[in-house]
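Catalogue entry: protein

Sequence with per-residue C-alpha cells
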Amino acid sequence: MPTDFVSHVRTQVAVYGDDRSYVYHREVGRELVAETVTYRQLDRDARALAVWLSTRPEAAHPVMLLYVDGIDFLRAFLGCLYAGVVAVPAPVPHDGRSMQRVATMFADADVRLVLTTSAVAEPLDSWIRESGLAAPVSVAATDTAALGHPDRWRLPVLDTGTLAFLQYTSGSTSEPKGVMVTHGNLLHNAAAITDAIGGDDTVTVAGWLPHFHDMGLIGMLLSPLYAGGNLAFMSPTAFLKRPVRWLQLIDRYRADMTLGPNFAYDLLARRIPDDQLAGLDLSSVRVALNGAEPIRPRTLDAVIDRLGPVGFRAGAFLTAYGMAEATLLATAGEVGCAPKYLDVDAAALERHELTPQAGGARLVGSGRPFGCDIRIVDPHTGREQPPGRVGEIWISGGSVAAGYWRRPGETAEKFHATLDGDGPYLRTGDLGVFDDGHLYVTGRLKDLLIVNGRNLYPQDVEEAVRDVHPALTGSAGVVFALDTGQHERLLVIHEVRTALIDDLTLPALARRIRVCVARAFDVPAPSVVLVDRRGVHRTTSGKVQRSSMRASFLRSRVDAVLHEEIDPAVQRLRTTTTVPA
C-alpha cells in the first residue's frame, strides 16, 4: 500500500500508461481547442520538472504556482510532488486586491520561486520586483525552461507525514492561512472521494473548477488520476462565458461524474436557453456532486426540472460537505438517490433545536461521513450535543490536515480539540445536526460570508468600500449576507460624510460601491444602504455591530437612511423575515 501520493500515481501510470488521459479545452478565440495528455506524458513531464527543481536552491522553500490554465498547472503541481517540493497553488493576480492577497501569501510561505508560463512570466516578474517583498523571488516559465531529463529522476524520501502542498484559505484577502496538506491526507481523502462516488477506473469526470481551490485541485484534477479514470475539463472563464459548455463537455465525453458549487448549477438552470439544450444527452451522469457552499433546495429542484428532459436524473445529484482543513470531502449523500430534504421549525432552529415541521424551513442533507468521524459539539462548553441538537461540526480522521503553516497557536485551537479526552478533532466553525445518520449544515459560527462558492470575510469587503470615495473613508460600514432562499446576497450599510461628496450624487455613490464589490470579489453586486454619520451601530469600544445592523435592516429600522439600492429579493425579506428580539 503506497504511503505517499507520488508512489500511487506511479502505480497508476504503470497500469494505465497511454490508456487514460486528461483532455484540456483551451480557449482560442471563441473556440475551445482540445489538448490531450496521457498518464504517461504527465508522468514524464513531472519527472523532467522534478529533476530541474532539484537544481534550484529556491525550491528548499515552498514554491508558488501561478498558472492561468489547468493543464499547465497540473504538470507543475505533479512536478513539485515528484521532487518533494511544497507547492503553493494560487490564482494569477489581476488587480490591486488580488495582488495584495498573493503578496501576503508570498510573505507567509516565504516563497523564493514562482512557476508559471511564458505568457504571464514577464508581467509577474515586474509586479514581484515592484511589490517590495523582503526576500528575492525568481520567476520561471516551465513551458520554455530547459527542464531536466526525466530518466534522471529518483523518488525522494516521502511518507504519509510529508507535506505535499499549502492550500491557502480563500476567506480573507488580508490574512490568508496556509492549510498544510500531507501525502497521507491526499491519499486518505482521494480514497474517501472514490468510495463516496462509487468510483473505479472506468470513471470519466468533466469539469471547469479553479485549479487553485481545493475542490478543483483534489476533486477534479487529482481524483480521476487516483482512481485510474479520465478527465475532460476547461477553465472557469470558459464556463462562465457560456455555461452550456459544461453540459456539452459531459455529453461529448459521456462523463459519469461532474462537480461544482451550488451557484454553478443555478447558472445551468437560469442561463441556458432551450435551443442550446437541444440535442444534448446527459443520461451518462451518475454523480453530479454539489458542495463548497450552502446548497439550495430550489437550485436542485430547478436543475432537475430544467435538465430532466435531456436525461439528467434526480438521483445524480450528490450533495456533500467538506473544507480545505479536511483536505476536501467529509460527507456525501447516497449515489443514485435524490437529495434528502428536511422541513423544520425555523424558530426552533434559532434555538439550536431540530424540530420537523411540514412547510417549515427546508434543509438539504449533506450525507454521511466518509473516512472520518464527525461529532456535533456545543462550541461554548466543548460537550457533545444530544441527538436533535444543533452544534459545531467537529471532524477527526486521516483527511484532517496537519494544521496552518507557521501558525502554531491557531493550529492548536482549530486542529487539536478534544472531546472527553479523545481527539484530536478539527473545529470547523460550521453549525450542523445529524438526522437519521445524515448531516444537515445549518449555519456558521462566525461572520464568514459564502457567496458563489467563495468564502469572504466582511472586514475585507468593508475595507474595499471605504476606499471607494473620500466621503466613505474614515466612516463606519458593515457587510453581511442575507439568504434569499435561492442565493446568498451581500448587503452593505455604510455611513457617508456628506460634506465630502462634492458633485457626486448619492445614487451615483451607491452604484460605485456596487461595482467595486462586484469586481473586487467576483460576486453579484450587493444591495447598498447609505446612512448619515453615526448611523452604524458600534460597541462601547468602537467596533461595528454587524448582527445588530442586520436585525435593524430586516425590521426596516435602520436609522438616518440617506439612500437605498436594494435587490428585490432582498427587499422581500424585510417584510417576510421575523427576527428574534
